[in-house]
Design brief:
Number of strands: 9
Radius of gyration: 18 Å
Distance between the termini: 30 Å
CATH topology: TIM Barrel
CATH architecture: Alpha-Beta Barrel
Order of helices and strands: HHEHEHEHEHEEHEHEHEHH
Oligomer: single chain
Helix content: 25-40%
Largest sheet: 8 strands, parallel, barrel
CATH class: Alpha Beta
Number of helices: 11
CATH superfamily: Aldolase class I
Structural class: alpha/beta
Shape: globular
C-alpha cells in the first residue's frame, strides 16, 4: 500500500512485546484505569474505526492479499485515526485493543469488542461463526462499551443456526449487563463454494427482522448494516439505532462519501463503522480520509 502522507503515530513494538512477555497483568490494570466517556456525544452520533478483519484471515485491500499483514502498520493507522477530532472510538479483537490500550489510544474513546471471529474467510465452516473473541463477561469486566457480532443467515447452510443461537445468547448476556450489543446481520448464500452476502433491499430487510429479535431484550441492541439501495425503505424495518458499515474500499471514494452523507439523514442511522476504507485510502492519507468521514457524521461540530 502507498505510504500515508499525513503524520503517522509511531508504535513502539519492542515495548508492547516486552510488556506481554514480562508483565501480562498490565493489561488488566490498564483496562481498570482507562478513562471512559458516554456512548453518544451531544449530537447523538458516532464514528468508529474497525479493525477486526485479521482475526478472520481477511487481510486483503484492493487486490493486495496481505495489505493488513503488518501489525505495526495497522496499529499506526489506527492510532492516527483515533487521534483525529470526531473519531469516537474503535471496534476490534482483544489482541488489537490490548495493543491500543497500552499505547494510550483508547482513553476517552468508545471501545467495542468483536465477539465471533470463528467463521474464517473461505472456510467450509465459515457460516458456523463461533464466538472465539470477547465474551460478554470479559467485556463487562474490562469496562468495554459494547460487543459486536457478525450474524450471517444462510438458509442453505446449517451452520447459520448455531451462529443465530450464539448471537441470541450474547445479546441476552450483554443486555443483562446493560451493555450495547451490536449485531451485524446479512442474508447470505453460498455461490461456487464462496459465501456471498446479498445486498439487495429485500434481503437486508429480512436480515434486520431476524437480527432485531435476537436475545431476551432488545433494549441495548444496535444494528450494523451495509449501505444498500432504497435505504430509507430498508431502515423502516426497524426502530433500533443503527451504524452503517463503511464497506470495502472499492470505486471512487467520493462516491462512497456521498452515499454515506445521504444515508446519515435517516433517523435510525446514528453514524458509521468504517475500517479499511478509512485506514487504507487510495492516496494513503489516513488523517484526511478520517477527517472527511468525521465531518459527515458530526457535521463539522467537532
Amino acid at each position: 500500500m502507498s505510504a500515508t502522507t499525513g503524520a503517522r503515530r509511531s508504535v513502539d513494538v519492542a515495548h508492547l512485546t516486552a510488556v506481554r512477555a514480562s508483565d501480562p497483568g498490565a493489561f488488566a490494570r490498564a483496562w481498570a484505569r482507562r478513562s471512559r466517556r458516554s456512548l453518544l456525544g451531544e449530537d447523538g452520533r458516532m464514528l468508529l474505526v474497525a479493525a477486526d478483519h485479521p482475526a478472520r484471515g481477511a487481510l486483503g485491500i484492493r487486490g493486495e492479499a496481505m495489505a493488513m499483514g503488518s501489525r505495526t502498520d495497522l496499529l499506526e493507522r489506527l492510532a492516527t485515526a483515533l487521534s483525529r477530532p470526531g473519531v469516537d472510538g474503535v471496534l476490534g479483537t482483544p489482541d488489537v485493543l490490548d495493543d491500543l490500550l497500552l499505547m494510550g489510544a483508547l482513553e476517552d474513546k468508545v471501545v467495542i469488542g468483536s465477539m465471533n471471529r470463528g467463521g474464517l474467510q473461505g472456510a467450509a465452516f465459515e457460516l458456523d461463526d463461533r464466538f472465539t473473541g470477547y465474551s460478554a463477561a470479559e467485556i463487562a469486566r474490562c469496562g468495554i462499551d459494547g460487543g459486536k457480532m457478525l450474524t450471517r443467515i444462510a438458509l442453505d447452510d446449517p451452520g447459520s443456526v448455531a451462529t443465530l443461537e450464539a448471537s441470541g445468547h450474547a445479546v441476552s448476556e450483554l443486555a443483562d449487563q446493560g451493555i450495547m450489543a451490536m449485531v451485524e446481520p446479512f442474508w447470505s448464500q453460498r455461490r461456487d463454494g464462496k459465501v456471498v452476502n446479498l445486498l439487495d433491499p429485500e434481503s437486508t430487510i429480512k436480515s434486520i427482522g431476524v437480527a432485531s429479535a435476537l436475545g431476551t431484550s432488545s433494549a441495548h441492541t444496535w444494528l450494523k448494516l451495509p449501505v444498500v439501495d432504497d435505504l430509507e425503505r430498508v431502515m423502516d424495518a426497524t426502530t433500533l439505532p443503527t451504524l452503517l458499515l463503511g464497506g470495502d474500499p472499492t470505486g471512487d471514494p467520493r462516491d462512497t462519501y456521498a452515499a454515506w452523507g445521504r444515508s446519515l439523514t435517516i433517523p435510525q442511522v446514528r453514524g458509521l463503522v468504517v475500517g479499511r476504507a478509512l485506514l487504507y485510502p487510495p492516496d494513503g492519507d489516513v488523517a484526511a480520509a478520517v477527517d472527511i468521514a468525521a465531518d459527515l457524521v458530526h457535521g463539522g461540530a467537532q
